[in-house]
Amino acid sequence: MSNEDSEVEFTVRRFMSTNPLTVDEDENIVHVSDKMMVRGVGACFVERDGKVVGIITERDIVRRVVASGLDPLKTRATEIMSRPIIAVEPDTSVEDALKTMAEKKIRRLAVIENNVLVGIVTISDLARALLEKVEIVNEFVRAATRQLPMYG
Question: What's the pTM?
Answer without folding.
Answer: 0.84
